[in-house]
């Protein structure tokens, strides 16, 4: 069982680790009281002999079987019988074709999902011209889903095939264009400055970098002229990569390298906005933490619940100071596996939009769910995988539904002759920044009738009265699905007993 099960590989070092874990599990279940002593004996045995000599007979036998089986080893055979239940479970986990560690949408999930739907007022739902309500369709979709999906958080992506299959083309167009807001325009002079770097060689681009510019001279104003400095420093960073030998954009490099060397332009984009920074490095989201602790109370019949840490993201655009506020979120990965890559499907299709809705709900509470303001809130998101960038956006155009939009991918190309297309990524970041700034203005503005609102508030300030607690009708994200617990591999093992 230990060596006859997949994987079928000639990477003996990798197989050593796999086989040892299986052996540890088997021995621990047979004699759990000897865990520690057995582990020491195993470590000594393997340390005193080379990897090859430790598994010599097994390797020889395995190699012979691989040669005789030929291409047929690519298929997975039936697992041999085993008297060790834990090893059987481990084998089934390794060979199972079902999604890894995915928790199904269970009965409790469905009860909460339906409860939130039933609290929605029909008069406040998003009614399409066809007469159908978007919320009703989403609820039906959610009941059909076996696994956690965006619809369970009442988020829809109009480009998702599952969503598209349940709406007509006319309904989809209505969903896409309802209260759609284009990003604030970029200054035409700034765009002209960016276009000056659309050259076919690094020498030509360097010539433009060294050319004096009135916005970057002695009269430089960091508050108004920073975008020009941002563009110039980003172009300089990318040119260094194109001039390197070998070109690092053609190599297999870790996620942290791309964040530091390619996507630094996102980190520094907000340097001219006071108290706003891009926080990276798997930090917990402020809005996500807020959602998970929203109904935390003092001890009563039950003890006070431990404070829960929010979802850790790869980056957040955050206001810092006495109060922390998130405005946007990003997820990152080292590789681009295509639009349908597993990591991209998961993070761009589920993880990121949930983070964005948490941010939206936090901002909606900030404006006390003012109807006019919440319809004007846009929450951008970034996905960067290697040298690829995808920008996204979440808003709430009507009813209780949040709309999630994914834009086409951009790339920082390894070929200098495509540098004009690389600049598309920079322009997309600048547009996303403008959207974030616009949302900041919406949330932080007092709005009209400031004096009247203040007077009305002051007249009741400190007056004892019965207060009606009103919860927002727009539902929060559905609770984060828990990963299935795996059978633990024993740490200790005795190969001699």
TrEMBL record:
Residues 89-102 have a biased composition (Basic and acidic residues). Residues 66-102, 478-497 are annotated as: Disordered. This is Uncharacterized protein. It comes from Jimgerdemannia flammicorona.
């Amino acid at each position: 069982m230990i060596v006859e099960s997949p994987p079928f590989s000639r990477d003996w070092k990798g197989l050593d680790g796999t086989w040892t874990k299986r052996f540890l599990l088997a021995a621990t279940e047979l004699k759990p009281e000897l865990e520690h002593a057995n582990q020491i004996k195993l470590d000594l045995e393997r340390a005193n002999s080379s990897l090859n000599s430790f598994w010599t007979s097994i390797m020889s036998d395995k190699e012979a079987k691989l040669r005789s089986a030929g291409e047929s080893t690519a298929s997975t055979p039936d697992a041999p019988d085993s008297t060790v239940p834990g090893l059987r479970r481990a084998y089934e986990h390794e060979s199972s074709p079902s999604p890894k560690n995915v928790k199904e949408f269970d009965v409790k999930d469905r009860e909460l999902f339906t409860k939130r739907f039933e609290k929605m007022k029909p008069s406040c739902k998003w009614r399409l011209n066809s007469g159908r309500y978007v919320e009703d369709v989403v609820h039906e979709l959610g009941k059909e889903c076996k696994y956690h999906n965006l619809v369970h958080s009442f988020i829809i992506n109009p480009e998702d095939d599952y969503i598209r299959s349940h709406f007509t083309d006319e309904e989809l167009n209505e969903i896409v264009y309802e209260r759609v807001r284009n990003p604030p325009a970029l200054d035409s002079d700034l765009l002209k400055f960016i276009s000056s770097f659309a050259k076919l060689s690094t020498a030509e681009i360097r010539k433009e970098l060294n050319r004096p510019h009135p916005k970057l001279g002695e009269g430089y104003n960091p508050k108004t002229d920073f975008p020009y400095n941002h563009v110039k420093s980003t172009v300089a960073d990318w040119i260094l990569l194109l001039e390197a030998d070998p070109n690092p954009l053609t190599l297999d490099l870790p996620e942290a390298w791309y964040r530091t060397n390619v996507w630094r332009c996102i980190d520094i984009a907000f340097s001219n906005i006071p108290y706003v920074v891009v926080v990276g490095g798997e930090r917990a989201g402020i809005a996500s933490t807020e959602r998970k602790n929203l109904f935390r109370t003092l001890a009563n019949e039950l003890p006070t619940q431990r404070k829960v840490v929010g979802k850790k993201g790869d980056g957040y655009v955050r206001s810092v100071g006495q109060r922390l506020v998130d405005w946007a979120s990003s997820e990152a990965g080292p590789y681009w596996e295509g639009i349908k890559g597993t990591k991209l499907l998961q993070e761009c299709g589920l993880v990121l939009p949930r983070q964005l809705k948490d941010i939206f709900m936090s901002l909606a509470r900030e404006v006390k769910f003012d109807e006019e303001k919440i319809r004007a809130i846009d929450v951008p998101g970034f996905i960067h995988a290697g040298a690829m960038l995808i920008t996204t956006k979440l808003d709430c155009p009507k009813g209780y539904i949040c709309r999630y939009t994914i834009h086409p991918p951009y790339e920082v190309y390894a070929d200098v002759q495509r540098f004009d297309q690389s600049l598309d990524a920079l322009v997309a970041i600048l547009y996303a920044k403008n959207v974030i700034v616009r949302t900041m203005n919406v949330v932080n503005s007092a709005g009209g009738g400031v004096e009247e609102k203040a007077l009305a508030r002051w007249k009741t300030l400190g007056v004892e009265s019965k207060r009606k607690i009103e919860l927002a009708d727009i539902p929060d994200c559905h609770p984060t699905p828990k990963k299935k617990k795996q059978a633990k591999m024993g740490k200790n093992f005795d190969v001699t007993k």
